[in-house]
Structure prediction request, 380 residues.
Amino acid sequence: MRFPDMGADIIITKILWSVIAAGAFWIAAVWLCTFKWVQRQLFYAHRIPIWLAQDLDKPETFGFLKNQVAPFYISTPDGERLYSWLVIPLKVYAMNEPALLEEPAAKDTWIENQLAFKFLTRDPESRLVIYFHGNAGTVGQTRRTEAYRMVSSGSSDKTFVLCFDYRGFGRSTGCPTEENLITDAISTITWALEKAGIPSSRIVLLAQSLGTGLASAAACYFIDQSPRIEFASILLCAAFRDSATVFLSYSVGGIIPLLWPLRLSKCSETWFSRQIYDTWRTADRIIELVSKSTKLGLTFLHAKNDHVIPWEQADSLFHTAVSATTEGGLTGTQIDEKKLTIQQGDGGWVHEWKAEHKHISEVVVLHGGKFDIVSIRLDT
Prediction:
């Protein structure tokens, strides 16, 4: 007499229940992502305490020379305070090292009394790079400080770096929302223009990931002023078209696409996109910026092996920007036929487009991931 083999049935049942449990967990996770608070915690990640091991008021602990960095606060119109660093270029530091070594440590908001501020504002040839960082962390995050050092020690001996933490990040007050962070970006640029007195022709906006949304929005704000304010150059590293696209394309380690099932149906993809509160429609702002500018240097920089924000986002934004240079727009085919392409072997490639006084570039490097900036061109 043969008894039925129950082992196979048990295994099949366990697999079935595991699939059901995983599906239920995924549905619950998607449902949670429709809540405003959850979205903002995931997108901004501003509460991740990755900066606690070091003292932001002592930039020397991040590898800078004594008093090469002046910490201070920038105030916003709605009463928030943004923690900021002003970084002195190495050559300026070397020429003034004795005075800097004797200077007392910077105190809170009194940046006007610091040598860093005086060196920046008293030299009519000084240039300023305003750095807009990505989500999570602070101005002191390791990869960010490497970027400041690279810019301040580059070919130009008069390029200062101004970086700041958005509200809710690090020591800055307030809570991040799209509207609030755009206010932060505008406030910081306004500080550079009015308090420091640096003309926009000597200011470069350099942005990374989340920061590309802030820089694009701020540039649109200033292009609408009378008279319009246009910057020397705008460099957007790891830019994205909008926040819904970031959520839908995100993959864990570049392997597991968490929201991939939603992309199988246009209806579900549209439904999820409508649940996003902070939309960060950078593509629309790029169109506005390009179409209203009389003079523009705009570069999209992306790594092909970026697993968080796919490099195709930069390619899409490049085509969007180029199309906006003409009143009737251009098709993708027209752009691909006329753009200048420079192959750089294992380094990647460069696409360029020149239209009157507008120069738009797309730089794609094969390596570098999301964070490592391989090369930067400051077209000033």
